[in-house]
Amino acid sequence: MLRAAPAIAIVVLTGPILFGLLATLLPAFGWFPALGGTSLSLEPWNMLLAQPGILRSALLSYATGLLTAFIALALVAGFLAGWLHSRAFGAFTHLLSPLLAVPHAAAAFGLAFLLVPSGWLMRLVSPELTGFTRPPDWLIIHDPLGLTMMAGLIAKELPFLFLVSLAALPQTRAQEFTRVASGLGYGRMAAFLHGVWPQLYPQIRLAVFAVIAYSSSVIDVALILGPTNPAPLAARLVTWMNDPDLTMRFQASAGAVMQSLVTGAALLTWVAGEKLVTAGARNIRNSGRRFAEDGLPRGGFAFAVALAAIAVFAGLGLLGLWSFSGYWGFPDALPRALSLQIWEGQLTGLGRPLGITFVVGLAATLAAIILALACLEREARTHRSGGSRALLLLYLPLIVPQASFVFGLQLFFLFAGIGTSFWALALVHLVFVLPYVFLSMSDAWRAWDKRYAQSGQSLGRGLNAIFWHVRLPMLLRPVLAAGALGFAVSVSQYLPTLLIGAGRWPTITTEAVALASGGDRRLIGVYASLQMALPFAGFAAALAVPALVFMRRAGMRASI
Amino acid sequence: MPQAENPKPLRLDRVSIRLHDRELVGIDAAIAPGDVLTVMGESGSGKSTLLAFVAGFLEPVFTASGRVLLGEDEITSLPPHERRTGLLFQDAMLFPHMSVGENLLFALPRGDARSARVAAANSVLADAGLGGFFDRDPATLSGGQKARVALARTLLSKPRALLLDEPFSKLDASRRQTIRRHVFDTAKAVGLPVLLVTHDRADAEAAGGPVFDLDDQ
Asked: How far apart are CA B76 and CA B88, in angstroms?
């Protein structure tokens, strides 16, 4: 098992992507015998390009990917530059960390409840300031340029890039370098951006690529907040993929290939942009400007980051409130009455999707933990790590857009007779859960003091005894935290669940996103609340279990 | 204090450890039961690498030749857990998720009934002046107490030699004397050959045995 672990992990990470891409490429050029396509042709592309506004959809996806990543990264860089090693920094970290666990769809619903013309912000100032007694006819969400969608994505990707940066910071000796630069007369932000950021960025680069890929191919957030006429490319793909007319599959496959090209173009643009920014930064650096006065930008970055976090939290609070509200008409800022009615009404219907969400998440997370532990233990025993190539493999499922291969994977499963079984669904979840579990666990696992293992072995205990009795219990906390993150990732999966499950395995997330077009806020409140409650329950368990097990062991307390 | 069954000398037979063609350590020595060989060297001199080689933890970047023997038994190619070379670091390395007693039970070879095992653990604790510490959390012990538990834990695993990797350097000066005495006296009483690596000349003097200086090589 241990020896095979790296090979199994590589197959899990690459196999579904390769088969999925292949099974997308062939029908995109007309070949898929099961649907009557037996010869290669460009007909699917003609159909695709004849769709109204298709180029605008593609451009929208491209721009969303680049702008979301750029703004989120700039906020992270500016915020770290202005506030790292400050007293307020810890508070910000506590504010942003939980947001990583919030599924994208729940965050997007929350923002929608906050921002729409009949949303809470407008209610707060109506009718006193605005004079509105009925909601104005403004297009705030679903705006044609996708600005609200981008704002939602930025608010959600910001915590991700922030936490990835925090994890990479210890390898940069940030404090020493900022102090040296400060000593040379540079302002706080300039000291960090010149002295530390160039070391930090290469380490988080793959995570930035993942943000570009995700934002340029996002579906659930696009359905909730994004433009509709035309919608971003990936959101339109889903409609075609689910079309009862099976010949639409060919057009959808061509669209999925187009999605790969759009995301690829965004990534290439980014890489070219990196060179420009590096050259520009060098010029500024060599000019010797000190930027000693940076109070205003520091304040600005703190404000922007806090605003993003507070908006998401406020939105989540609103989701919960709506789910318990009785009549709540515009422009009341609070519901007239609270009621359990909507929850009671949904109780019978909730059970099945809730159970499926839980079991799929548990299966994928357990498998990911076992695989990651086996790979890391083998690495420790053989003194061989996969290095940067292994890191690239881990990021592969995060950088190849879901919309470009999951559809092909569905066709492949149909073709191979695997169909829409529970295990196919759990396997596809594992593809996306494994990278997060592995990345989240590996730092702590590798940083563990191996003299504990050497002491144990010298006491006459074998490697297996050391693993089960020493290493695993000592690292229980990071392992469970990684599991909680993996579970959260599984809960938030929309497209893979929708396509691979083919409607037979509904989860809380697919049910919640399906409600988006209906606009019943109480119902959305119920499903989106559950969607965020599940990951939080996972993280609560990951904190509580080690705290209870090691209650009487001071050396095992959390170090934060 | 239980005598080691059939004490044997620890022999380093023409041991040479290299890193990229450069010899870090070259040593040929025998340590009689109860004796201490001190290997001195600055940090980076390869003295901890020598202990890693003897205990079976040499990292693959190093290449080594020569043999390690206990009496006539060659242990050079045995896996670490079959060598029975008790290893002590400058930190006590008590497992933080186990009680003091559980740490000791983890080291005790299998065989006896649970009650006999607990009795054995309690007995070494009493010998170390730590009677009644079985249920204590290791994190609540003083540095000196941790060092004593670490030694008791190692002795319970019935080692055939003791390998000491600067085991006194993190103790405060007042306690260092006492612990050092305690470790050397115990090793002598049990009849274990001791290989000590250190950069502290006082350790070598207290050990009293021959000194091998890596910096002179």
From this structure: 19
Tell me what pLDDT residue A420 has. 77
Structure tokens at A344: 């009671």
In chain A, domain spans: 5-21+53-343+356-556
From CA A300, how far away is CA A84, in angstroms rounded?
A: 15
Q: How far is A354 from chain B (nearest CA, A)?
A: 35
Q: Which ipTM score applies to this complex?
A: 0.92
Q: Which residues contact B146 (CB under 8 A, 6 or more apart)?
A: B92, B94, B138
Q: What is the pLDDT of residue B160?
A: 95
- What's the pLDDT score for residue B3? 66
Say which CATH architecture domain A5-21+53-343+356-556 belongs to. Answer: Orthogonal Bundle (1.10)
- pLDDT at residue A560 in the model: 41
Dig out the tokens for B163 from the structure.
Answer: 């390998």
Would you state the structure tokens that stand for residue A206, as one six-digit string? Answer: 């793959």
Kindly list the residues from chain B whose CB atom is less than 8 angstroms away from the CB atom of residue A476. 97
Give strand pairing partners of A32: A37
Q: Find the residue in A nearest to B159 (Cα).
A: A459
- Give me the pLDDT at residue B4, please: 67
Query: What are the boundaries of each domain within chain B?
Result: 10-216
Q: What whole-number distance in Å separates Cα of residue B12 and Cα of residue B69?
A: 7
Contact at CB, A458 and B96, closer than 8 angstroms: no
**DSSP helix, strand, coil percent of chain A (3-state; round to 5):** 75, 0, 25
Using an 8 Å CB-CB cutoff, list chain B residues near A385: none
In this predicted structure, the answer to whether residue A353 has a pLDDT above a threshold of 60 is yes
> Which residue type occupies A162?
F
Comparing CB atoms, the residue among B85, B109, B139 nearest residue A458 is: B85
Chain A residue closest to B103 (CA)? Answer: A456
Nearest residue to B5 via CA among B158, B152, B194 = B158
Are A452 and A555 contacting, i.e. CB atoms less than 8 angstroms apart? no
Angle between helices B100-107 and B143-156 (to 10 degrees): 30
Q: Determine how β-strand B22-31 pairs with β-strand B10-19.
A: antiparallel
Helix (H) or strand (E) holding A38: strand A37-38
Quick one: which H or E segment has residue A203? helix A197-216
Residue B24's φ and ψ, nearest 5 degrees, are: -85, -45
Instruction: Using an 8 Å CB-CB cutoff, list residues of chain A that contact chain B.
Output: 383, 449, 451-452, 454-463, 469-470, 473-474, 476, 550, 552-556
Q: Decide if A41 contacts A253 (C-beta within 8 A).
A: no
CB atoms within 10 A of CB A35: 18
Distances (CA, A) of A87 to A187, A308, A545: 18, 20, 30
User: If you average pLDDT over every residue of chain B, what do you get?
Assistant: 91
Q: Three-state SS for A380?
A: helix
CATH of domain B10-216: 3.40.50.300
* pLDDT, tens digit, 9 for 90 and up, residues A296-334: 999 999 999 999 999 999 999 999 999 999 888 888 889
DSSP conformation letters of chain B: -PPPSS---EEEEEEEEEETTEEEEEEEEEE-TT-EEEEE--TTSSHHHHHHHHHT---TTEEEEEEEEETTEE-TTS-GGGT-EEEE-SS----TTS-HHHHHHHHSPS-S-HHHHHHHHHHHHHHTT-TT-TT--GGGS-HHHHHHHHHHHHHHT--SEEEEESTTTTS-HHHHHHHHHHHHHHHHHHT--EEEEES-HHHHHHH-S-EEEGGG-
